[in-house]
Structures are given as C-alpha cells and as structure tokens.
Design a protein that fits this description.
- The complex is a heterodimer of chains A (792) and B (440).
- Chain A is of the alpha/beta class and 792 residues long.
- Chain A is built from 23 helices and 36 strands.
- Chain A has five domains: 101 residues, Roll (Ubiquitin-like (UB roll)); 153 residues, Alpha-Beta Plaits; 126 residues, Rossmann fold (3-Layer(aba) Sandwich), CATH 3.40.50; 149 residues, 3-Layer(aba) Sandwich (Dimethylsulfoxide Reductase, domain 2); 99 residues, Barwin-like endoglucanases (Beta Barrel).
- A seven-stranded mixed beta sheet of chain A has the order 16-15-26-25-24-17-18, with helices on both faces. In chain A, strands 1, 2, 3, 4, 5 and 6 form a six-stranded mixed beta sheet that branches. Chain A has a six-stranded mixed beta sheet with strand order 30-32-31-36-29-33.
- In chain A, a hairpin with a 2-residue loop joins strand 13 and strand 14.
- In chain A, helix 7 packs across helix 20 and helix 8 crosses helix 21.
- Chain A is globular.
- Chain A starts with 17 loop residues before the first strand and ends with a strand.
- The relative contact order of chain A is 0.11.
- With 440 residues, chain B is an alpha/beta fold.
- Chain B folds into three domains: 210 residues, Rossmann fold (3-Layer(aba) Sandwich); 84 residues, Ubiquitin-like (UB roll) (Roll), CATH 3.10.20.600; 99 residues, de novo design (two linked rop proteins) (Up-down Bundle).
- Helices cover 42% and strands 13% of the residues of chain B.
- Chain B has 20 helices and ten strands.
- A five-stranded mixed beta sheet of chain B has the order 3-4-2-1-5. Chain B has a five-stranded mixed beta sheet with strand order 7-6-10-8-9, covered by helices on one side.
- Classes of the chains: A alpha/beta (792), B alpha/beta (440).
- At the A-B interface, helix 2 and strand 9 of A face helix 15, helix 16 and helix 17 of B.
Chain lengths: 792, 440
C-alpha cells in the first residue's frame, strides 16, 4: 500500500504580501487582512475573547478583546486612535502599533470592565456547570478579571434549561450572547434555525416556533459555546472535565475521517468532541459522530465466544472451544466466502483479505455489504485503489474547486464533513455545484447548487450527454451550465457509492472525467470502505462478489462463510438470511445481529472505543486512532490471527502495527485489462399506479451504530415520500396525505411532501423509522406501486 | 441679536400647510425643476459648498457623504432618509413631516438625481402613525404631480420612494441598524467597514441622511450655497430647527441660524415657564448629549462651541428643566430608556445600561451607597468608547454630566429619596393651584 503520512499539499503556495506591525513592542509580519487578534497570537500574545472564532466571520459583539491601536498617518506620524479597538474585527495595516493589556493600562482597564459586565448577570454556577473546568469565561475571568465583584444588585434570571432541540439544551442565564452558535449555524452549517431574539439585556438565543433546531451539526454549537449556556442532553451533569481522560480518535461513522477526541471516565466513554484537523474536518464534526457512541454499551454486547449447540442455541464457550469449532467447520466445508462490513479498520480489512486468500485460499472476499456491481469493482480498482491525498482529490482541493459535479451523492446525508467543505467552497471560493439527482434537497440549496434533474437509473445517460458536445442551450439550462463548468477552471466530479447500482454510471463518470480533465473522487458512506479497497477486500478476477457469495451460500456452492460487521438487511439481497442459515457461518461481531442469528460460531470483537487502528478516509488519507478504553476485547485482526493459528497458518496480524506494516509492504490492488464499456440500462417505465423509486439513507436513521441515543434520534428527519406536483395530481395526493408504497416485501405508509422534482418518481429515505426500503435500495430505478392512504 | 430664519418652518401656521398646493404656493418644487436642468456633479458640489452638515446629530458634511459613493457600476444605489426620530427630547423631523412633508420629498428627488439613485426610502419611526399617513399622502401627491415616478418632469429620470414604518426601536436610528431593519432583519448595527456608501442597503452603495438634512437641500439649490453658508458660524453653517421643550413658556420649534444661544432662544420662547423657578439644567441635543446648566446660557449652539464646552450639538433638542426637577430622577428615567433600547449586541451597552439603571433606581429611592457614585462614573467610563455603536456612549452622557454638575444630589440619594427632595408634582403645570396639597 502506498499510503503515506499527511503532508500539506499547499506548501508551495506563493507567499502573500506581508504587513509589519508591532504588538506590545514585538515586531511581527503577517499576511494582509490578518486580524489584529491573530497577529497578536503570532507574536505569542493572547488577547482574551469570546465572540471571536477563527472559522467564523468577525462580529465584534463581546468587546472583550479591546486593545489600543496607533497607526501612521500620511506623513508617517504614528497617531493613536481615540478609543480602544476590538482586535477581532480590525485588520492590520503597515506600521500599526498595538498595545494590549500587557502594555496599555487603557486596554487593561477596558478588558477588566467588559469582563466585569459579562459576569454581573452570569450565575457563577461553575461548580455545577458542565463547562466548569474547561470554560473560556471561567479561565479568562481568572486571568483578566477582578477578584471581587462590585455588583450588588439583582441578577437577570431565566427558567432553565430550555430545549432548543432534543439534544441541545440552553441555559439562558449563562449565555454571554457572543453569537458563536448562531453564526456557526448560519454560516458554517447553513441551518439558521437558532437566532438571537429580544433585545437589550433580555436578548437570548431562540428557536423558530415551527422550525426546531434540526441541524446535523448542532453539536458544534455546544463545543464552541464559550460558556456553559449550550449543553448536550446526553452529557449534561454527567462528569467534570478534569475527571475525564481524553484520547485522540477518528470517527467510525462515515468515510470522512474526522479527527475527534473521545473522553472517558472509569471505563465509560462519556462524550466525544470534534478534533482540530485543518486538512480534514477543520474544527467541526456532525451530530452522529459526536453523539452516537453508545450502541456497544446497551447491555447486549457479546463478551464471550459462542457456539451453536445441537439444540440450535448459541452457548457460551471458551475461546479455545470456539476457535476449534470454527476451524473445524471451516476446514470441513467445501467452498468459502468472506464478507466484511463497513465498520472495519484498515488493519481488520487486511486481516480479512489475507485470511481469505492465505488461509481459506479463496478469492471470494468482498467488503461491500451493500448494493454493488461488477462495474464498481473495476472502477474501484482502476480509479480509487492506491490514490492518496498527494495524488487524489482532497478536502483542500474541493475548497478551492472551480466547479463540483455530484453524482449519486447527497453530501449532507452521506458525507457531512464533505458537505461542510463544499458549503465553504461555495461561500468562499464561489465554487459552482451541480448535482445529478431526481430532486433538489435543502442540502443542495445550502451549497447554492443546481439540480440536473434525472430519474434514478438515468444517471448514465446524463453523464454521457455531459461527456459529448451539447447543442446550444439556454444559459440557465443545467446541462449547459454543468457542461461549461466541467470544462472551466479546476472541475471535480464526486461520485457516491450508490452509483454502483446504476448500470454503466461509474464507467461513464470515469469517461467524463477523462474527457474533461476533471478530477474524480469516490465517496463511500462507511468508514471502513476505502481502507478495505486498499487492503484487498475486493474479490479477485472472476471471483464472487457479495451477491455471488450470498447466492453461492444459499445454493450450497459455498459451504462456509466468515462474516464480520455485516447486517444481512443492508445487502439488499433477497434470501440473504437463508444463505447464512444454510452455510457454516463464523461471525465476528460486537452485538447480536441478523448474521449472528444464523451463525454457527460467534467470536466477540472489540467495538470502536476499545481498539486501535486506522481508517482510510475517502481522500485515501490514513487516519490512525488509539484505543480510548483499555479492555480485554480483541479487535477483528487479532481474532482472525488466532483463528488462522488454529487452522495452522500464520496470519501476522496480532497487533495493529504488525498488520499495518504487512499491509504497507504490499502493492495496492489494481484492475487488469480494459475498462468495461459504458452500458446503459433501459429507462425504467412505471405503469399505471406505479412510480420509480429514488432513495438514499438519511444521516440520522435506524442504523445499528446509532442505537441507544434517544436524544440524537430526536432530531432525525421524519420519513416523508417526496413527489412532484404532476405526480401528486396524477395520484390525487395533497401535501400531508398518507401514501402507501409497495414493492416486493416492502410496504411503508408515510405522509407526502410535494416539491419540484422529476415526475413519475417517488423519493423515500432508505432506512428511517417505519420506512425500511433496504431490500429495494439495490436496484436503481426500482418500480414501486403507490396508493393513496394508509389502508391499500 | 440673532433672529429666527423660518425656512422649513415658514408656513407651518397655514391651515393646510402639508398639502402640495400650499407647498407649491410657497415656491415648492421650483428647486427640483432647477436641479433637473443641472449636472448632478454640480448639485453635489453646491451641497458641499453650502457647508451643510448632517442634521441627525453627528454633523458629518452632507455633500462629502454623497461624494463617498463609488462611481456608478450600472447597479442600483440608494438614498435612505433616516426619519426614525426617537431620541428623548428630539422633535424636529416629526413636526416637520407633519406640517410640511414636501420639503423632504423635494429634497429626496433632488438628492436622488444628484447621486444617481432611482429608489429612495424613508425609514419613519413606526409609532407616529399620523405622520406616516401624512408622508404617504404627500408621496402620493408627488407621484400624481409627476415629481416622482417615471420620467420626472420629462427628463427621463425615474424615482420611486418607499415609506417604511419602523417597529419601535431607538437603535434603528443608527444608520446600519436602520439598513438591517429596512432589509427585514433585526435592527442591530453592522460591523464597519464596509460603510453604507460602499455596501449599504442590499449591499449596494447607499447614502443615509437625516430628514432635516435632505429637507434643507431644496433651499440650498434654489438660493445658492452662499446664501446658506452666510448663515450660522464659520464651521457650522446654515440654519436648523431648535426644539425647545420642558419648563419654558412657549415650547416648540424655533428655526434659527446655528450659533444662536439658549439665552436668545429662551427670550424668544417667553422665558422659563414659571419665572419663580430658574433654569437648573438643560440638554443641548437630546438626552444623549451631556447636560448643561445655567452657566452655559451663552454658549453658541453650533457644533464647535458646544463641543468645546464638553457636550454635543446633537439634534438641537433643548430640554429645559427648572429647579423643581431632581436631576437624579431625570437621569434615572433616561437611563431606563437606554436600558430598554439597548439592542443587546455588545456587552458594555447591554450589561452596562442594565447595571446603571439599577444603581440609579436605588439612588433615586434614597438607597444608594457611598461607593455608588464613583461606581456609576467608572461603569460609564467602561462603556464610553467601548461599545459597538454610539448608543452605549450616549447612555453615559447624562450620568457623567449630571454627576459632574450635581454630585451633591447623588450623594443625597444615599439617604433621601429624590421624591422627597423634589416632589414630582411641583414640576407640573398644575403645581400652582394644588401647591398646598402637594407639599402637604
């Protein structure tokens, strides 16, 4: 594997014009437009602040960072400004002389005065406040405030706390009204569902009455709150910061690879925070990454190995017994397959791939525990495997892109940090964004994106059309604008993993990239996918993929399966359960699942917090993490090593380091031969009473790893069926009517939303509460029958 | 002896002073006809030459403000008239709009033509519904007469005027908060730069002027810059409306050249309301300008002289208080106002006014402590020049000036309620008749 450590690709940038300023007598040179408060940081001088945040636009609200400033006039005489200036809003100018609290009594008194005023209405309930111990107000009042208060009047009080969402609570009396949370929601997330309301001393953060604070990024407001005004419902009153042990970690929920910090106390993870990694997640993460970490602590965790006894019940046995039973079963079976799920680390994936090839001597291994295709295998080997941040698309490159084309990808739902970076690109680099999808989501709106309307299954046609010449279209025709954008400055094409199910779409995307010179990146949903590609978890040439393995097991062609981290329902394959039932299954799992239900041997493995390793994010960037909790739970790669040992083979994956060094010594897998030709599937033609199904997963849904998080689940979007006005008319539907969608074994009844979108299509979430369409999701353009009402 | 110069107030006593007919009978809209024949640059130059300074309080040269607009780029540029007159004591724009709104509309037409604006806005204080109706009617009349709308006076120049009623916030008199409010947002001041001249209303170049400034433009265009600059003082040229209120015999609007003194104005207004009660303190330009006392009766009311004496000319809102008034009570009420009107954006104004109001209420009720007075002054020091906009600064002026001139009254507040030292009823008009009851 050729993945190397992170390097800043922007190091050869042209040096910007430098401006010389003096701060407390220390001369520094900083780039033009640098804020005085940042220049002071360069000089090693800390100016206290609350509203200032380097990733938010300046506001100058708290006035804590006042300094004295003198600037040269036209003749070069340095003239002091009459009033102290807010250093968080003023940019440097040549020859500026700044005096902070360290050298200016005026600045010091101004800061002390502001601090005193911030505290007069503050409850000073630090001993019971979540923030106490890590609170910028507490810390800065110690360093820049008075020891005693002159305030002996009546403090402003409010009933407390109020829920601004099911997961974020607000204590208005603690708030210093710095507007960090509202600015974050408005600027970074694009979800301005909280705003400052009322005025004067009664100003407060408020929500819209009929639009709750349902943002996938709301947890960041809790983290950047400089006081304890915003707290997370799940962590409130649970711990003191100084009792927590922090571990640098990487989020296991998606392929974005966010740096996070996992805080635990006495063997229990209590919270997770966004880490600071400017190249990846900056300082943000999504609510799922922050709050969904409890699924392994629900009391149903496998602690011991189990073997199915003659009565058909799983029985706890010793490791030795279980390994022997597994080895015997595998040895006895004819034909093997290995299925790997999306949760695995790159070391685990390497162990599974090597176990398949060296121990079971089979090429039937696949990590795609989801709808997939042969086109996709070729695409991954040809265009994805082996790319690194040095050679492939990166977050930084997206941040500076001229245009981005999204195909089969809904970033806000499927890749939230990519979404934030796209939004930043749209806001700061004026990147134009197009999306090939059946409907324009609110997420696309937030990216200022343009929809190229296309029914599911027709993406190949659109990509092919963009590859060729388009006739003279109007300037507002999205195909025309996308065609031009792809041939403009710095174009990027981002394809989602869902595109695998559209025949010919991935080859067509590759062809479009080749024809236009656009950069191409593949955005999988799960954390383990990208690493598994590198580690060789794709089936060998001519070998069975996931669907083939499941079919083989069902038919008896494959006698035994090794399965890790797979949910049978995610596969979108009818008969998967029967396949697991029929074959001999060794399952490496954390908790009971649709696979362990049928497994013959269950080997318990460590959940994320209890293992070390690395994920490879969609950029191909290696994201190593440490084990937060030290337990005797074993990671997948170690269990596989033990199993190999039992079968008389040496796997060499006892530790993550050992697995990684073996992996790094191998070359990444590559495609052989010519790329597949772009084949097109027939356009789906729904009959009377039928519609074409469009579906993707919402970020917060019924996924296994989100279980046990009621506060988080409270902000999940309710499932809705989206149809166009013409479709609604044809079916006699009005906004809010119940509609029943039927297809194969699926039958869901949800309310209708009518919006501007492609006709003859109904969109539904794939796996939301009371809306499970996973068995249909594999077939792009599946036809479903639709009836009005809930009783059809 | 300075004499009055009734220009904007010339025909307020006409029974139908607000109509188009009356305005035209008084040479109304002749300046517009004249202006439309001129080069816009000459109009800006004439305004610069006249020395007209902003009548909204800060006194920034009006013509210079227009000159800050970037060169036309084909996009819209706006004129916004600040008619959000809410300062305690200030009552010049509202009477002017009530009595003779066409001065403003003609001024808007001329200014818009000069700066290349095709859509002007009047942001009117929302509480004055009767004035709102009258301004709306005047705009309708002007459209009907062809002074507004398409192809004004056959010159091809188009101008629309939108009258917008605010929703009752003092902060919206601050020009950037006004623009936010006009755009439909919460009225809170914006970070500058960018200044409105560069990115104002809807992020386009915008001129924000006070009603009286714009209303003065027709007279300047008609009679010449020199006529205007001959009035007033060397650096504070022209005339202005002085609003006398409080304990004065004939309160009202007195239009006079800048530089007139309160002594002269009081003479014209018939002196103090009750000759037995002499002048105690007064504000030169509304409650946010530091107060004066009887020792300042001869200070010329121009920008420079008032500033030299430690206050500001402001809006020429002369609130007159005689010796029946407790300065503590007056200041406490004003501070309540600033606490109520603070927008909440920045810490010193939001928290500081809240704190000041509580301390002043205690002093007013005779429950002050010996530390309170110095604390008041120190809090004011921590607000002045530290707040986001001038509202915070304005909130400190009455307090610091009152303590400066009447510290002993604040000291008395440590033991005796203001209502005992200065019975409120004694300040009223009916005090004479009921004197015995009040003091009983």
């Amino acid at each position: 594997m050729s993945v190397t450590s992170d390097k800043n690709p922007a190091s050869n940038e042209v040096k910007p014009d430098l401006i010389g300023v003096t701060i407390d007598g220390i001369a520094v040179s900083v780039p033009k437009n640098t804020l005085v408060i940042r220049a002071a940081e360069e000089a090693g001088i800390e100016i206290p602040r609350f509203c200032d945040h380097p990733l938010l636009e300046p506001v100058g609200a708290c006035r804590q960072c006042l300094v004295e400033v003198a600037t040269p006039d036209r003749e070069g005489n340095v003239k002091p400004m009459p009033k102290p200036q807010a250093s968080c809003t003023m940019t440097v100018s040549e020859g500026m002389q700044v005096r902070t609290q360290h050298s200016s009594p005026v600045a010091d008194k101004a800061q002390q005065g502001i601090m005193e005023m911030l505290l007069i209405n503050h409850p000073l309930d630090c001993p019971v406040c979540d923030k106490g111990g890590e609170c910028p107000l507490q810390n800065q009042s110690m360093s820049h405030g008075r020891a005693t208060s002159r305030f002996d009047d009546i403090k402003r009080t409010y009933p407390k706390p109020i829920n601004i969402s099911s997961q974020v609570l607000l204590d208005r009396d603690r708030c210093v009204l710095c507007a960090r949370c509202t600015r974050f929601s408005d600027q970074i997330a694009g979800d301005p569902f909280i705003a400052l309301v009322e005025r004067g001393a009664l100003q407060q953060v408020g929500i819209y009455e009929d639009q709750p604070f349902e943002s996938y990024f709301s947890g960041n407001t809790v983290q950047i709150c400089p006081v304890g005004a915003l707290t997370g419902a799940a962590y409130r009153f649970r711990s003191r910061p100084f009792d927590l042990v922090s571990t640098p970690d990487v989020c296991e929920h998606c392929a974005d690879g966010c740096a996070i910090r996992t805080d635990h106390r006495r063997g229990t993870v209590l919270r997770r925070m966004a880490g600071n990694d400017p190249q990846v997640n900056e300082e943000w993460n999504c609510d799922k990454g922050r709050w969904a970490f409890n699924h392994a602590s629900l009391g149903d965790r496998f602690e011991f190995p189990m073997v199915r006894d003659v009565g058909g019940e799983l029985r706890v046995v010793s490791w030795q017994e279980a390994l022997t039973a597994a080895a015997e079963g595998l040895r006895a079976a004819r034909g093997h397959g290995v299925l790997v799920g999306g949760r695995v680390s790159v070391e685990d994936a390497y162990a599974y791939a090597t176990f398949a090839r060296s121990v079971l001597r089979t090429e039937h291994v696949d990590h795609r525990a989801r709808p997939h295709s042969a086109d996709e295998r070729d695409f991954l080997l040809r265009h994805v495997a082996g790319t690194t941040p040095e050679t492939g698309v990166t977050y930084d490159e997206i941040g500076a892109a001229g245009s981005v084309l999204l195909v089969g990808l809904e970033p806000e739902e499927e890749s939230p940090i990519l979404f934030l970076r796209l939004r930043k690109a749209y806001r700061e680099a004026k990147t134009t964004i197009h999306s090939i999808a059946p409907l324009a989501t609110r997420g696309l709106d937030k990216l200022g994106g343009t929809l190229i309307p296309s029914a599911p299954g027709t993406e190949t046609e659109v990509l092919t059309a963009l590859t060729g010449e388009v006739g003279p279209g109007s300037d507002t025709d999205p195909i025309t604008t996308a065609h031009a954008a792809l041939r403009g400055e710095r174009p990027i094409i981002l394809v989602g993993e869902r595109l695998a199910t559209v025949p010919g779409a991935l080859p067509a995307a590759a062809e479009l990239a080749r024809a236009t010179g656009a950069r191409l990146a593949w955005i999988p949903r799960r954390a383990g996918e990208r690493g598994a590609v590198e580690a060789g978890c794709l089936p060998g040439e001519g070998a069975l993929d996931t669907a083939g393995i499941v079919a083989g097991a069902a038919s008896g062609q494959l006698g035994a399966l090794v399965v890790g981290g797979v949910d049978a329902h995610d596969l979108g394959l009818p008969g998967a359960s029967e396949a697991f039932e029929r074959s001999f299954v060794v399952s490496l799992e954390i908790r009971p699942s649709s696979v362990t239900e049928h497994a013959d041997v269950v080997l318990p493995v460590a959940p994320h917090a209890e293992r070390a390793g690395a994920f490879v994010n969609w950029e191909g960037r290696v994201r190593p993490f440490e084990a937060a909790l030290s337990t005797n739970a074993l990671p997948d790669h170690r269990v596989l090593h033990m199993l190999a040992d039992e079968m008389g083979e040496f796997l060499g994956t006892r530790t993550a380091a050992e697995a990684r060094s073996s992996l790094e010594a191998t070359t990444p897998p590559a495609a052989k031969g010519y790329p597949p030709r772009v084949r097109r599937a027939p356009v789906p033609e729904p009959g009377t009473g039928e519609l074409v199904l469009a579906t993707w997963r919402l970020m917060l849904d019924e996924a296994t790893m989100q279980e046990g998080e009621p506060f988080l689940a409270g902000t999940a979007k309710a499932p809705r069926a989206h149809v166009s006005p013409a479709t609604a008319l044809a079916f006699g539907l009005a906004e809010g009517d119940l509609v029943t969608v039927l297809g194969d074994d699926v039958r869901v009844t949800v309310p209708v939303v009518i919006q501007d979108m492609v006709d003859h299509v109904v969109w539904l979430p794939t796996n939301s509460s009371s809306c499970d369409l996973r068995s249909l999701a594999g077939r792009a353009g599946a036809i479903v029958s639709v009836t009005k009402g809930g009783a059809a | 002896m300075t004499t009055l110069t009734p220009i904007l107030t010339k025909f307020w006593d006409h029974p139908q002073s607000w109509t188009m007919a009356t305005y035209e009978d008084n040479e109304g809209y002749t300046a517009l006809r004249q202006a439309m024949q001129s080069d816009p640059a000459d109009l800006i130059q004439a305004t610069k030459d006249s020395g007209l300074r902003g009548r909204g309080g800060a006194g920034f040269p009006t013509g210079m403000k227009w000159g800050f607009l970037p060169p036309p780029d084909g996009g819209p540029r706006y004129l916004v008239v600040n008619a959000d007159e809410s300062e305690p004591g200030t009552c010049k724009d509202i009477p002017l709009l009530m009595a003779a709104p066409h001065f403003l509309i003609e001024g808007i037409a001329i200014t818009s033509f000069a700066i290349g604006c095709n859509h002007a806005f009047i942001y009117l204080r929302g509480e004055v519904v009767h004035v709102y109706r009258r301004v709306m009617r005047a705009v309708e009349e002007a459209y009907a007469a062809g002074y507004l709308g398409k192809d004004i006076l056959g010159t091809g120049f188009d101008l629309d005027v939108t009258v917008h009623a605010g929703a009752g916030a003092y902060i919206c008199g601050e020009e950037t908060a006004l623009l936010d409010s006009l755009e439909g947002r919460r009225g809170q001041p914006r970070l500058k730069p960018p200044f409105p001249a560069v990115a104002g209303l809807y992020a386009r170049p915008t001129v924000v002027n006070n009603v009286e400034s714009i209303a003065s433009v027709p007279a300047i265009i008609k009679q010449g810059a020199e006529w205007f600059s001959d009035m007033g003082t060397e650096k504070s040229q022209g005339f202005g409306i002085f609003s006398l209120s409080g304990h004065v015999k004939h309160p009202g609007q007195y239009e006079a050249p800048l530089g007139i003194t309160l002594r002269e104005l009081l003479d014209m207004a018939g002196g103090m309301r009750d000759p037995g009660h002499p002048l105690k303190f007064w504000t030169p330009g509304g409650s946010s300008t530091p107060m004066f006392t009887d020792q300042h009766l001869d200070v010329p009311l121009d920008f420079e002289s008032v500033a030299a004496n430690g206050s500001m000319l402001g809006t020429r809102a002369l609130q007159i208080f005689d010796d029946t008034v407790s300065v503590v009570r007056a200041v406490s009420r004003w501070t309540d106002f600033y606490m109520h009107e603070s927008c909440g954006k920045c810490t010193p104004c939001r928290e500081g006014t809240w704190w000041l109001a509580q301390i002043l209420q205690r002093i007013e009720h005779g429950q002050g402590t010996p530390e309170d007075i110095d604390k008041l002054v120190d809090i004011c020091d921590n607000i002045l020049g530290r707040a986001f906009c001038a509202l915070g600064d304005g909130a400190t002026s009455p307090i610091t000036s009152a303590v400066k001139y009447f510290r002993e009254e604040f000291e008395a507040g440590c033991h005796t309620p203001a209502a005992e030292l200065f019975p409120p009823a004694a300040s009223t008009l009916f005090a004479k008749e009921q004197n015995t009851m009040v003091t009983a």
